[in-house]
């Protein structure tokens, strides 16, 4: 005997939904704790941190911000489709996947840099810790910027709301 099938729910979403900030915060907190533990026991064997260690995060954030403005303009002008010169729906899905993965990468980076900074701020007696703080701050800011750019890109990938019947000027079809 098979179990009865449940009726589909009206509000049930299929596929990928928007990234939740609380999920990103949870990732950052867990990674920060792990990073702090690892740095605490291995700091003496780490090389000195360059000031621009987190530079790649700034570059990724800038690229995603530019892509977000392009996608936003195409979606706003309803220039999405398969015709030449339009934003292909598959490309929009790929950009959305890029945004989701970049948000997670940014959360991981925020966690790593935060864990490192917590350790560095508690070690006033080490000259190396004072030297490494600016690079860790630059990396932390880069991680935050990447998360913000990724969330903005994800927001720009949303499909516009369906027009209402009044906005289109039509009447409901025959019942």
UniProtKB/TrEMBL annotation:
Coiled coil: none
Transmembrane segments: 21-39, 51-71, 92-122, 134-153
Transmembrane helix as UniProt keyword: yes
Keywords noted in UniProt: Membrane, Transmembrane, Transmembrane helix
Domain of life of the source: Bacteria
The UniProt record lists the keyword Transmembrane: yes
Pfam families membership: DUF3180 (PF11377)
InterPro entries: DUF3180
Protein name according to UniProt: DUF3180 family protein
Native source organism of the sequence: Gordonia mangrovi
Lineage: Bacteria, Bacillati, Actinomycetota, Actinomycetes, Mycobacteriales
């Amino acid at each position: 005997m098979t179990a009865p099938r449940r009726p589909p729910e009206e509000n049930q979403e299929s596929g990928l939904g928007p990234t939740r900030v609380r999920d990103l915060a949870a990732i950052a907190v867990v990674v920060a704790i792990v990073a702090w533990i690892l740095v605490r026991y291995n700091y003496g064997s780490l090389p000195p941190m360059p000031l621009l260690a987190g530079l790649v995060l700034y570059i990724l954030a800038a690229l995603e911000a530019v892509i977000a403005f392009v996608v936003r303009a195409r979606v706003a002008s309803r220039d999405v489709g398969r015709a030449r010169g339009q934003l292909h729906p598959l490309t929009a899905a790929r950009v959305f996947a890029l945004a989701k993965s970049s948000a997670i990468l940014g959360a991981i980076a925020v966690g790593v840099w935060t864990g490192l900074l917590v350790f560095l701020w508690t070690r006033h007696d080490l000259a190396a810790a004072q030297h490494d703080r600016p690079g860790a701050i630059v990396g932390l800011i880069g991680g935050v910027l990447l998360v913000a750019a990724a969330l903005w890109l994800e927001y720009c990938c949303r499909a516009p709301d369906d027009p209402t019947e009044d906005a289109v000027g039509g009447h409901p079809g025959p019942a």
